[in-house]
Amino acid sequence: FNALKPGGHAFLTTGNFDGLTARAKKSHWFYLDLPAHVCFYTPKAATRLFKSAGFRSTQTHCVGLNYIHLYQRIPVPGLLSIIHWLQIPSGMTICARK
Prior knowledge:
Shape: globular
Number of helices: 4
Mean pLDDT: 85
Helix content: 25-40%
Largest sheet: 3 strands, antiparallel
Structural class: alpha+beta
Order of helices and strands: EHHEHHE
Strand content: 15-25%
Strand order of the largest sheet: 1-3-2
């Protein structure tokens, strides 16, 4: 936070500990790679963490599944919303604004 200019942004990627992949794979989840990964976050926890550090705006986006490619192959109405709701992706991006 202190390294950023006012209005600056921090962009990060990490695993989505609340994602379906993490919950299904448990101890075999890809992101459980000690000692490289030592802390794990849900989108809600990441948002709280950045806000508590003083960031004004924090957005998280679940990643790890090519939604558009899947929808092109299986054009079922509502499919993208269901995938997002289930949090199938194993990772997330975080964008926080100072």
